[in-house]
Amino acid sequence: MLGKDLSQVTPDDLQPVDEFHIRGDVATRELIELSGFTPEMHILDVGCGIGGSTRRLSAQAGCRVTGIDLSEDYIDTAIRLTDLLNMQDSVDFHAASALELPFDDDAFGGVWSLQMNMNVEDKLGWLLETCRVLKPGGRAVLYEVCGSRNEPLYFPVPWAQDDSMSYLVPPAAFREVIESAGFDVEVWNDKTDLARRAFADVQEPTGDPDLPVLGVYMLVGNDIKTKAYNLRRNLEEDRVSLIETVVIKRGT
Fold first, then answer.
1. Closest to 118 in 3D by CA, of 34, 242, 238
2. Nearest to residue 127, comparing CAs of 170, 166, 159, 175?
3. Under 8 Å CB-to-CB from 125, ≥6 apart: which residues?
4. 82 vs 80: CA distance, rounded Å
5. DSSP secondary structure code for residue 151 in this structure
6. pLDDT tens digits, one per residue of 120-154
7. How far is residue 177's CA from residue 154's CA, in Å, rounded to a whole number?
8. Which domains does the chain have, with CATH numbers?
9. Could you read off the pLDDT of 64-83 as tens digits, one per residue?
10. Does this model's pTM top 0.85?
């Protein structure tokens, strides 16, 4: 379909569809540097989607990564793409709920979670489970869309068709939940301005969409241009924000 020899496919070839978060692989690379994860560590990716950032994390940091997602279709696709890239020895995936992780206490050296809290109503339950499976002193990297000063949101957006699937809270409230779950905040960066710049040129779509061969519409639907335009409006009007944080599990 892309005119590629499948035996020569690289993670960069898949980037247009499999790094489904604001600023894509650029943000992923920045977060990997921020994480401090090292090759001997086993990292859990909570809400991995089809595994794009999971694989990039493993390739760039040299660590073993396990990804979980609630969608069995996403997990099946993640496994197939990982096999295609011959990365199955360092990356694996499981269909599971973030509210009931199928792992022992203190099982992972680090946790990685990119833009999933928007669809999680029970944020404390999610973060308590994340904390439970992380070793004491371990770091969790979170890159999350939050609410902001104004409401309501314009819908649809990339993570939800309407407000029945979107559970945003303002950054201060999100931070309170993080700390209540047993974490100390080490890094807290507001990336909203960068998100605004990333969407600044997105225009309101007209007519039938002209979609690329490979793109995130394959995951979120052919109305992706409307969703991107609404995200631009939400960012510009202070209806959503973007937070990058590194948190540490308390304990020794």
1. 242
2. 175
3. 99
4. 5
5. -
6. 999 999 999 999 999 999 999 999 999 999 999 99
7. 25
8. 6-249 (3.40.50.150)
9. 999 999 999 999 999 998 99
10. yes
Rounded to whole angstroms, how far apart are CA atoms 89 and 64?
A: 8
The answer for residues whose C-beta is within 8 angstroms of residue 248's C-beta and 6 or more apart is: 137, 138, 139, 140, 183, 184, 185, 186
Place of tokens 């490979």: 214
Q: What are phi and psi of 68, to 5 degrees?
A: -125, 145
Cα 135 from Cα 251, distance rounded (Å): 9
Which has the higher per-residue pLDDT, 221 or 63?
Answer: 63
pLDDT digits (tens, 9 = 90+) for 212-227: 444 443 445 458 889 9
Q: Which residue has the tokens 């100390």?
A: 184
What does R_g of the chain's alpha carbons equal in angstroms?
A: 18
pLDDT for 248 beyond 60: yes
